[in-house]
Specification:
Chain lengths: 112, 271
């Protein structure tokens, strides 16, 4: 999808007006951001908004995350194991220490 | 005040232009010193109350709260939010937000990608041709030379694309920081707008009774603030306010401009 994020009052108002005028293209609204359908029309609206408020409109393209295809098994396992932990107050770093679960610093440095 | 319209001059606190071919908007503009040719007024400059209310005409629309807030300020009233408002406005005025634009880097990467893809296809095509020539036992040296050239160009294109990608990544980082600044600015702007709204509510409330009295005192059928006519609201706001610039009145329930001026407590130009 196309993610639009605004960074000024004027851009935020313009986004709100665009979403109101073109409900069919809007997948989700979040106040100063919105997800639009990744169609040429969605792109047209996004680019037009950016033309109107250069530097105050960010446009990103998102895609669904299929963790089974894109995220290593050890990361998925760590997430599930950590969520199922006995001690709720334990931070992940402590939880992972001494186990096979990946160290958070290593996770931070590894790109997906 | 001193008024000049199409060569004729009027002076005084209450001027009657009802027999003159001039619009309320033209006179209002002249009071702001932005009048059309032929309409000039020497008078004190109009302020926020005039901005909010405008000329008194039958269907004038007045946003009541901001107008009353302006009227309150014209009387010297202040709001508890005023200091915060001044601080926020000053901070915003000094805030510098860097550019957050990666367009040229995106264009460069897109162009580099296209060129790389084009050359890849070309190299593949030429390889095929060289292969075919060899298999046919023909002289492939020309084609081999072209292939070598294309392969070299492709290597350069790959380098350019990699470089363009790096530049874009750097610019995106910079844009992220610039957006952090813009987000802070947005938060400040929202806080300022909220403070101003709260101040207007406070100020309008401070003159609520005077406004109610003015509505009640307006000549004509008795009205109440809740559903007063637009014209009455405008007159009442001006009566509550303390303004020096002349008020343009196109429609008022008074016998003459002088009475209007007395009621409003300000100079009047009847149009």
């Amino acid at each position: 999808m196309l993610l639009l994020v605004t960074y000024s009052r004027a851009a935020r108002t313009a986004l709100r007006n665009v979403c109101r005028a073109h409900e069919g293209v809007v997948v989700r609204r979040f106040g100063r951001a919105a997800l639009l359908e990744p169609t040429e029309f969605g792109a047209f609206l996004a680019l037009r908004l950016r033309e109107k408020h250069p530097d105050d409109v960010q446009v990103e393209r998102t895609r669904p995350l299929n963790e089974y295809a894109e995220v290593p098994e050890r990361v998925r396992e760590a997430a599930a194991a950590y969520e199922a932990r006995d001690q709720p107050a334990t931070p992940y770093e402590q939880f992972a220490a001494g186990t096979d679960h990946p160290d958070p610093d290593l996770l931070r440095d590894a790109e997906l | 005040m001193r008024l000049r319209v199409d060569g004729r001059t009027w002076t005084g606190r209450a001027v009657d232009l009802s027999s003159v071919d001039v619009t309320p908007d033209a006179v209002s503009a002249a009071i702001r010193d932005e009048g059309p040719a032929g309409v000039e007024i020497e008078c004190p400059a109009p302020g926020p109350v005039h901005d909010r209310v405008g000329p008194v005409v039958p269907n004038c629309t007045v946003e009541r709260r901001p107008a009353l807030a302006a009227a309150a300020r014209s009387r010297g009233l202040t709001a508890p939010q005023d200091e915060a408002i001044a601080d926020l406005a000053a901070t915003l005025a000094d805030l510098e937000v860097p550019a957050a634009d990666t367009e040229s880097a995106r264009k460069r990467l897109a162009a580099a990608g296209e060129e790389r893809d084009r050359l890849r296809e070309r190299v593949a095509e030429l390889r095929g041709r060289v292969q075919a020539l060899r298999e046919a036992g023909a002289d492939a040296s020309d084609a081999e030379a072209e292939l070598a050239e294309a392969a070299s160009a492709l290597a350069e294109a790959e380098t350019e694309r990699a470089a363009a990608e790096q530049v874009l990544a750097r610019e995106r980082e910079a844009a992220r920081e610039a957006r952090d600044a813009r987000e802070r600015r947005l938060e400040l702007e929202d806080r300022l707008a909220n403070r101003r709204r709260a101040a207007r509510a406070h100020l309008a409330d401070a003159v609520r009774e005077r406004f109610g009295a003015a509505i009640h005192e307006a000549p004509g059928p008795a009205e109440v603030p809740a559903d007063a006519r637009p014209r009455t609201i405008a007159l009442a706001v001006y009566r509550v306010a303390d303004v020096a610039a002349p008020i343009v009145v196109a429609d008022a329930p008074f016998p003459d401009p002088a009475t209007t001026a007395d009621w409003l407590g300000a100079p009047v130009v009847r149009v």
